Amino acid sequence: MPADKPDRTPITTSEEAGIQAGIAADPDNPEWTEADFRSAVPFEQAFPVLAEKLRRTRGPQSAPTKQLVSLRLDHDVLLRFRATGPGWQSRMNEALRRAAADLPD
Fold this sequence. Notes:
- By secondary structure, this protein is an all-alpha fold.
- The chain has helices at residues 13-24, 34-39, 43-46, 48-54, 75-82, 88-101.
- It has 2 domains: 13-54, no CATH class; 70-105, no CATH class.
- The chain contains 6 helices and no strands.
């Protein structure tokens, strides 16, 4: 079966029994009941201070300095820049800036 197509074969009765036995054997992580679902609250309400610390926002951009474009590049060129690790897009931008400086007006 291809990797992009998950196996949708129904589980057998014995597999289901094994799953249920595993749930029953784990007292630290019991299966949720309807009452559990009804009393649940969102993480931000349950832990507001922690939720605020985890929120990663950089705020509004003061003035857009970059423009989103669609660009077709040779595969080997793209792989070469990506292989340099995080920040590869900024390095590609700098390489294009240097090349643009050499273009005639």
